[in-house]
Amino acid sequence: MWESKWEVLRKLLSDPLSVLHPFILLPMAGQLLLLVAAFRPGTPRWLIRLATGSIDLLLYFMAIIGLFSQNRRILLSTLPFTAASVLAFRELRKE
């Protein structure tokens, strides 16, 4: 995973047009926002929701691919993060 993120960052600096795709940039931005939120006390809830939602877009697209291709492995691989994001959204709503 880290290797793929490093590769995207390297290509972003050397050949930006090769990584300019929403399914690459949105989840990457979401991960960076979650990283900032993890180490910054008092992070606004909307920032956490935005970061989680941007990662969710990619995973929901992967789940749709898994459904249409009838590939259970792809579909099941999206469930852990989906469950975690649902729990996070519920917890943020309580606060």
Mind explaining what this structure looks like?
This protein is mainly alpha-helical and 95 residues long. The protein has one domain (2-94). It is 82% helix and 0% strand. The protein is built from four helices and no strands. The protein has helices at 2-14, 22-39, 45-68, 72-94. α3 (45-68) packs antiparallel against α4 (72-94). The mean pLDDT is 84.
List the helices and strands and how they pair.
Elements: H1 2-14, H2 22-39, H3 45-68, H4 72-94
Helix pairs in contact: 2-3, 3-4
Transmembrane segments: 20-39, 46-68
Keywords: Membrane, Transmembrane, Transmembrane helix
Quick structural overview:
The chain is 82% helix and 0% strand.
N-to-C span: 32 Å
**Number of beta-strand segments:** 0
Q: What's the helical proportion of residues?
A: over 70%
Major sheet: size, sense and barrel closure?
none
